[in-house]
Amino acid sequence: MKREPFINNRLFCPGPTPVPDRVKHAALDTSLYHRSDDFYALFLDCCNKLKPIFGSDTLPLILAASGTGAMEAAMVNLTAAGDEVVVLNAGKFGERWEKLAKAYGCNVEVVRSPAGEAPGSDEAVAALKKLKSPRAIFMQANETSTGVRLPYEDIAQTVRSAFPHCLIVVDAISSLCAHPMKMEKMGIDCVVAGSQKGFGMAPGLAFIALSSRAWKSISKRERFYFDLERERKGQEKGRSAWTSPISLVQNLSEALLLIHEAGIDAVLAQHARHGAAARAAVHAMGLKLFPKGHYSDALTTVAVPQGLDGQALQNHLKSRYGAVFAGGQDELKGKILRFAHLGFVSRFDLLDGIAALEFSLKDLGWRFETGSGVGAAMRSL
Amino acid sequence: MKREPFINNRLFCPGPTPVPDRVKHAALDTSLYHRSDDFYALFLDCCNKLKPIFGSDTLPLILAASGTGAMEAAMVNLTAAGDEVVVLNAGKFGERWEKLAKAYGCNVEVVRSPAGEAPGSDEAVAALKKLKSPRAIFMQANETSTGVRLPYEDIAQTVRSAFPHCLIVVDAISSLCAHPMKMEKMGIDCVVAGSQKGFGMAPGLAFIALSSRAWKSISKRERFYFDLERERKGQEKGRSAWTSPISLVQNLSEALLLIHEAGIDAVLAQHARHGAAARAAVHAMGLKLFPKGHYSDALTTVAVPQGLDGQALQNHLKSRYGAVFAGGQDELKGKILRFAHLGFVSRFDLLDGIAALEFSLKDLGWRFETGSGVGAAMRSL
User: Within an 8 Å CB–CB cutoff, is residue A224 touching chain B?
Assistant: First the structure.
């Protein structure tokens, strides 16, 4: 079906997220040399502006990699082969921790949650108790593949008091800027993040922050590209060990400026409002949420009902309305639709996404009152 | 000293190199999702367009990393701990191969060349003969820290015939597009490159190509982020294992289009002309080249003469004329000045760089006939 005039593609997938003009234009000055005082100042300013977003009392580091690179950096700097670790696997990204830990020779105890459910602190502690001397526990803050927000603060506090020496590592790639992170206060030892989620820019940068405790406990292991001690020594002066992706750091600098102008608390509150409004819209359209509670405020996951073809719905949203939603991955393919409201998303962007979903559902024959989703969201806002 | 009106900063450092407008603007469409057929097609097209630049008969892969990431990928996929390897160390980047090989537990035989000199095939073979069963030899095509172009083709052919099973690995990060690379024909097993050199775009992407022989000889070793077999399986369909830096791939796509429009042979010939012209200019200004032969066509390295302060010259070029040249690193600090003519550099850009150098030399009291460098370069062109 031919698309109406003036409809451009827009991203409603859980990363990359919409990029503000100011952020994308920041990379158009291509006269910056990464080994210059100008760049060192820009880089260090970014690290400093990341600090309150991580809630760390140490400097977060910037890596030239996608988020998985920061996950690998956490694994190879904080564990050694043979270390006992627990992985909370609540989906595709939990599985990534599991694969990483196994690839690097850890002795892994896995807590596997059914898709759409979140593990709790009891399960985390029970798994740790099975080990003689647990070195670390790995989890997500937000499991992007299912739209579940893990109770990471509660898990961290419970684990910290039961296992004072266990390092607590949280992948907050799709969570930072959407859900509160105060790693120092929450007792979290390592948080990893990526540029293309809450930071409203392209992928290609990964971020990692370690607690003072974690810095004192770096493991012995072969590593080079992801050697965090080397990075820390340089980045404290704005100098990355390896060539930094200059254009992406320029994007980041502008994005961080926008976040701090708005205020982190205001950004977090907006994500909470948008999450609630999106969920209200889903119910009003007669659809069900996929997660059993523990709803993410970064993305809303709809269970595709019987009688609707999930893949056809996703394709229709894109081809007819330019709305790029995400489907399910692996065994969830066709069964869920993921609608992200992460990063630089205004209430109008949110309503546009809901409206695109309503039009598509109507086109595909789903019976509900057109406008009910948008109306419910507006009342919720 | 206050800068004259209308002088903008311009890069004459060996990476990042100047970025054409078409290349930078290609990243302004931020509606592309990396898990979509549109992106898979764009990505695969980039890999295919890299192939003739590497001269490989297999598909080059794109990694979300800076060039050092591709060096690490070569090391961890082609060697195992305890393997015997030779490293040709002709400067800071040769040293990086050495550090990488040692970090990953190889038994390393190093051929160290004095700064400004290149190792030859005799030295490579002599080093390999010291080992019982050499697994691989690592070298640079172009040693960026000194401006020396290694005789990599000759070394590769000699090593290939003397040690048929030894893998030959070449870091061509600052060489590709400036010096010919036909890895299959030259008998080279692995070539690594980076986006911010001959490709006229920002850093953040690394490239790696393996010969069919190398693909059949992947080592057993712990790896995850830089697992090339996993990448190959996906990238043959345009799907990177980890989230791809979308904006940088858009830049790359446009840059590769420009390179193929001009023709690779024309691009190589231009680098050769510019190298010769830059060297003629240096001599005409009464200065000396730092390398003892084996001149790079990617950058020209000037030996800072007695009576001139190298650091002051570099600072003056930048502050007064907006011309960002590179100095020496580590023990070469203040002793050399590096003038790059790599990537999307026209003859006018080249002349501008030479003119900026002339004006700066004159300001700092170096005695020569102003205009002699530019004139010599123009006659050479």
Answer: yes
Which residue in the block uniquely carries the two structure tokens 């009152």?
A369
| Interchain contact, B66 vs A244, CB within 8 Å | yes
Query: Does A248 contact B326 at a Cβ distance shorter than 8 Å?
Result: no
- Kindly state whether B194 is in contact with chain A, defined as any CB-CB distance less than 8 angstroms: yes
Dihedral sign computed on CA atoms, order B210, B212, B214, B219: positive
* A138 Cβ under 8 Å from any chain B Cβ: no
- Contact, B207 vs B194, CB < 8 A? yes
Tell me if the pTM is above 0.90: yes
Q: What are the chain B neighbours of A15 within 8 Å (beta carbons)?
A: 243
Does A225 lie at the interface with B, CB-CB under 8 angstroms? yes
Q: What is the pLDDT of residue A2?
A: 77
Q: Please identify every stretch of chain A with a pLDDT value under 50, giving residue numbers as ranges.
A: none
Among candidates B204, B241, B246 on the partner chain, residue whose Cβ is nearest the Cβ of A64: B204
Residue A230's region, left for phi above 0, alpha for psi from -120 to 50, else beta, is: alpha
Q: Is B328 on the interface with A (CB under 8 A)?
A: no
Question: Mind listing the pLDDT tens digit for each residue in B76-86?
Answer: 999 999 999 99
Contact in structure between A45 and A26 (CB atoms under 8 Å): no
Over residues A320-362, the pLDDT tens digits come to 999 999 999 999 999 999 999 999 999 999 999 999 999 999 9
In this structure, what token pair is assigned to residue A130? 């099975």
Nearest to A105 among B75, B222, B324 (CB): B222
Angstrom CA distances, B277 to A74, B180, B293, B344, B353, stand at: 49, 19, 15, 16, 12
Exposure class string for A260-283: b at 16+ Cβ within 10 A, else e: eeeeeeebbebbebbbbbbbbbbe
| CA closest to A102 among chain B residues | B222
